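Late entry, written up from scratch paper. The run itself happened at the end of the previous shift, but nothing got recorded in the book at the time, so transcribing now.
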Amino acid sequence: MKTKSVLAGVAMAVVMGNANASFTCTGVPSTALNASGTLWINYGYGVHAICNVNERVNGISPQHCRALHTEFLQAKIRGKGVTLYFRDTGDTCGTLGNWVTPNPFPYYFKFGR
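Output as recorded:
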């Protein structure tokens, strides 16, 4: 239950703008934490910096970042996908870049069960 409430807080923390997704990107994630605490994910569209386990980044607290890391790891272990929701900016999953913080930043993360 604690994880669910933390994730609800994460979802609310990253809401930026309209709640209607203009585009979504889905894939089974792999993750990495670098020495500075940045959580990087790869779900098939490049490697993206999502948050940091040591400091607030992209509107996500360290506590919520650790919860996201757990969810991404569980999705990977279970072979389940994660869907990231983005605002319409004319971008697509393939144009978000590689080894960057995605712009636009996802406003919602949905983990498959």
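The helical segments are 2-13, 62-78.
(Scratch paper discarded after transcription.)
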